[in-house]
Amino acid sequence: MKTILITGANRGLGLEFVRQLAQDETTIIACCRNPQEADELSAYAEEKKNIVMEALDVRDDQQISNLVKKLHNQPIDWLINNAGITGDTGVTVGNVDRDNFLNVINTNCLSPLKISEAFLKNIEQSQDKLIVCISSQMGSIKDNVSGRSYAYRTGKAALNCAMRSFAIDVENQGVKVMLLHPGWVKTDMGGEDALIDPQTSIAGMLKVIHQHKDNSHAEVLRSYNGDLLPW
Asked: Given 21, 69, 104, 124, which residue has the most CB atoms within 10 angstroms?
């Protein structure tokens, strides 16, 4: 039975990852900052007995360390770095806030890198040895024609860059790393004007994961529909 660890599993894309992956013969480690407040996830975990909820603030190194110790030598087949924030996306020139910028970079880039590093031994012990990072087309420099969203765009571009280096460094251990763009999704983060629902996004990404999981080293950014996106 595969074990899949998902960050930011209490809502949006993370919750939908849990819903769809829990249908298979898998053990789901569903991580979020406040499990006691994650009502939908808790209810689903009660229904599906293969879901284990764990407290994890991805920005907190002590919490990461505590979870590593708790899981000890448990193999993790897939690590899905899903947790992320948008920050203040409406910032214009002259209004860039340093704290907002650093918080977004910390959450969207450094945290997935640190978590991937922390659970590397668990991943190495598994069969699939896969790390999936939810990136964004908004991290593409070539595709940026509308400006704004300085922190979010930079954080996703930095994530792509950092995980490409990480992928090169762990390739000899058989570990694979995949960067995925989920599309513009109707979630709290994406808003009601978004183009697709979470079910479509996750189903598409899971199809891409299964198709490319054996030979991915963060060398490309793939969309939920399989398209290759520009850097």
From this structure: 104
- All structural domains of the chain, each given as residue ranges with its CATH number in brackets, are 2-229 (3.40.50.720)
Cα-based distances in Å from 129 to 3, 17, 117, 146, 227 = 11, 18, 13, 37, 23
Q: Is the pTM of this model over 0.90?
A: yes
The amino acid at residue 67 is L
Query: Whole-angstrom distance between the N-terminal and C-terminal Cα of the chain?
Result: 36
> Any long-range contacts for 55-61 (C-beta under 8 Å, 24+ apart)?
55/31, 56/7, 56/31, 56/32, 57/33, 58/7, 58/8, 58/31, 58/83, 58/107, 58/111, 58/112, 58/114, 58/115, 59/106, 59/107, 59/111, 61/114
